[in-house]
Design goal:
The protein is mostly beta strands. The chain contains no helices and 10 strands. The strands form 2 sheets. Strands 2, 4, 5, 8, 9 and 10 form a 6-stranded mixed sheet that branches. Strands 1-3-7-6 form a 4-stranded antiparallel sheet, with no helix packed on it. The protein is globular and about 40 Å long.
């Protein structure tokens, strides 16, 4: 079992930045690949970014490529999502997921989820 807790969300103006954190506990963090997803009201959960065990493989959704950066610190059991040049359409609840197989861009591939953190970008 893996427990995930996200933090770092908030209200920011368009063009601003936020850094989300997801802290894992319960199992060896470095054995898990991690993903960030988001869900806006009335919309499906969508993939944002993923990161492999080593941090070498980091796919991104086209909508965030060049603005968001995913990283991980295995010593701190934490994965980060640095979000720059935020837009109102980035407004959503952001959640991190974990699985011990491979980085994937679809939510059902992830076995464990955090509760999410709200990000609101005002125009």
């Amino acid at each position: 079992q893996v427990q995930l807790v996200e933090s770092g969300g908030g209200l920011v103006q368009a063009g601003g930045s936020l850094r989300l954190s997801c802290v894992a506990s319960g199992r060896t963090f470095s054995n898990y690949v991690m993903g960030w997803f988001r869900q806006a009201p009335g919309k499906e959960r969508e993939f944002v970014a993923g990161i492999s065990w080593s941090g070498v493989n980091t796919p991104y959704a086209d909508s965030v490529k060049g603005r968001f950066t995913i990283s991980r610190d295995n010593a701190k059991n934490t994965v980060y999502l640095q979000m720059n040049r935020l837009k109102p359409e980035d407004t959503a609840v952001y959640s991190c997921g974990a699985n011990h197989r491979a980085v994937a861009t679809f939510a059902r591939a992830y076995d464990y989820w955090g509760q999410g953190t709200q990000v609101t970008v005002s125009s």
